Amino acid sequence: MVDTPIGAAGPFPGSEPDEVELYHPHSWLTRYVFSQDAKIIAIQYSGTALAIGFVALVLSWLIRLQLGFPGLFPSIGPSEYYQIITMHGMIMVVYLLTAVFLGGFGNYLIPLMIGARDMVFPYVNMLSYWVYLLAVLVLVASFFAPGGPTGAGWTLYPPQAILSGTPGHEWGIVLMLASLILFIIGFTMGGVNYVVTVLQARAPGMTLMRMPLTIWGIFTATVLALLAFPALFVGAVMMLLDRLFGTSFFMPMIIEAGQRLHYGGGTPILFQHLFWFFGHPEVYIVALPAFGIVSDLISTHARKNIFGYRMMVWAIIAIGGLSFVVWAHHMYVSGMNPYFGFFFATTTLIIAVPTAIKVYNWVLTLWRGDIHLTVPMLFAIAFIVTFLNGGLTGLFLGNVVVDVPLSDTLFVVAHFHMVMGVAPILVIFGGIYHWYPKVTGRMLDERLGLLHFWVTFLGAYLVFFPMHYLGLLGVPRRYFEITGLGFIPASAASLNAFISVVAFVVGAAQVVFVANLIRSLRHGVPAGGNPWHATTLEWQTPDTPPRHGNWGARLPVVYRWPYDYSVPGAAEDFLPQNQPVHAAGAAP
Amino acid sequence: MSLVLLYLAGLGAVSGRWLARQHLAAKPWLSAGPSCTLPADGGGGSAAKLALGIFLAVIGLLFALLVAAYGMRVPPGSAGVPLDPRLLWLTTGFLGLASLLLHRADRVVRRGAEDDAHAHLLAAVAASLVFLCGQGLAWRLIGEAGAGRTIDAAGSFFILITLLHGLHLAGGLAALAWVTFGAARTGSPAGLARSIGLCTLYWDALLVIWLVAFGILFRTPWSGLIDVLCRPPA
Q1: Using the beta-carbon criterion (under 8 Å), do A4 and B39 form an inter-chain contact?
Q2: Which terminus of chain B, N or C, has less C-beta within 10 A?
Q3: Domain Heme-copper oxidase subunit III family profile, which positions (chain B) (predicted)?
């Protein structure tokens, strides 16, 4: 290893932009409610996202009640069913996953992991959270609006989304669109902040190629989100105008109940383009932070440097770029020029290459590592397996000839729940178990964590593996009731009932997680500053939990990359990023 | 979506050029020790300017999507927006004038003539307000003609694009008003110069976005180019 002598590099430049001053709170209200501290904002984001996520979890129970035991619960009619699946999908994808990864992990980890005191624009950061909260409240308000929430499906496809036959066409769709517009405005405030903070506020010595992969993942996902959300914004505004002011951006000529509506000339396909131009990058907006977090969890808990760091960085960038040229593989069944179908099938296959590189590198990081099967590590390994499974079925669906017959079946539901639902949520859990000691100063209870992990992991597989089989049988998705279809054997109903029972158990296991979070706040084992013996900067703060400003009087100086684990000859099996070279024991 | 992909390719080229200078081929596991190259390799310039640049890139994409949507939705033979374009040429002139005035203010404030800069800022605010009023008049004329809900949607797009552009301008005007009536009187000369520089960049973006939107909504000398970029192949 090549050592650079200390001091040879000369004086370090300051890492904080001159024109931005750290805000200091003056009251309880500005410290904990209208806080400009990224760590508090992260907790606010995560708390709100998890709360609305639990609403979506309960909605998934209602979906399973209906699918597993049709007719048993008369309060769930067709309209309610569509409203439930719509809200479940939209909440999970946008208001939980995006918000937790970027608003939660992003806010907490970016300043700490790059050695900054806070986000570059703390006030805008605070506004970002409050606009997000407003978006959530507007969304929740639709449950109580006349007609209830929209039942248009989470893709909100026009023309049916705003026609009178669709539940929630009065207020539900309006509130949904307004909420999405607010969410995007709020996210843009936060997103610009994250990007500028990563680019401008890194600690001395923290080159881009010394950033932990968590930061690379969050950074690239934020760039993706900044470029993908405008498409959803445009689609939402145009549909809102169609709904409220009678324009015809997406609405073709329609005869409803024998009467010709005033719409005409619009193109629903245009909305699909806009939606999926956002929708596919959204998969990676969620996946890239998960990739980064998993990389760091695996390296830390296997006591081994990440395999192929440069490849991992390049793969993140490549996936980010490619994610913008695959959107139309969601639209094969809408019909398109066969050459376009070929193009999008090809790009979909190509994007699997950098993704596969990441999977190989995770496995090779584990290879001959000193693997500690801690709860975060278990969740990380579970993610790799689950993402691989979900990714493989994605390769099936990326091909036009396979996608067309499977598109409207439960196979698609199983695929995207594995890759977009279960996999990232496993990472969220892993991340929370990993960083909770830094956030609170206490460890989460390990036995409860193990219980939570095994029930969640095995349960998720018992739910979604059989669902692939149901899909191959041809069991359609989006159907309120699957009866009277001669080609579906009676055993499919039994399997559906089984899936539902397991889903209830998995859902109930999340209560264990919440109880653990609350109980450990007071009764958890004190964690100390660096319980995992990790190398990255967030574990090297002078205080745990870190105080406002993170670093005390002096910012850290970074001397090495974030994966110096088990370095031969070193005194310990980890070398923190801010540990000077001469203090690392024998020459690493 | 060709226009959008072209726009993204442009952003990708800028990002790629920047990334190429970030030593992404470095082997960080071989180079323990401090590095004096930071944070300058991260940009080093003004955080506010970088943030504004990113924000404008996002806004630019939003309008590129709207223009692409226009190309996909409005048929090539459409009669277009039923409005005399001379009104829009006039308002365009005022937006261009506002942009020029801000450039002028930027130059004079760097020479230390803050009073001169203040006068230019006031004139830029006034020109921008005239532009907004002109757009408002155009909305009224279109509304009276009932063209906001036509089948070919050209009028609807006019309302939508100009509404979002107007909101974008209104946000900028709030900042410009703060600079003109607040920072120009109480802030430091360096801070004032920085703020005016940001406003100038913002107004340049407003002007470019408007010119592109104008080019697709009405026949202008550059409309053919925009048509090529945003109309799907026949």
Answers
A1: no
A2: C
A3: 49-222
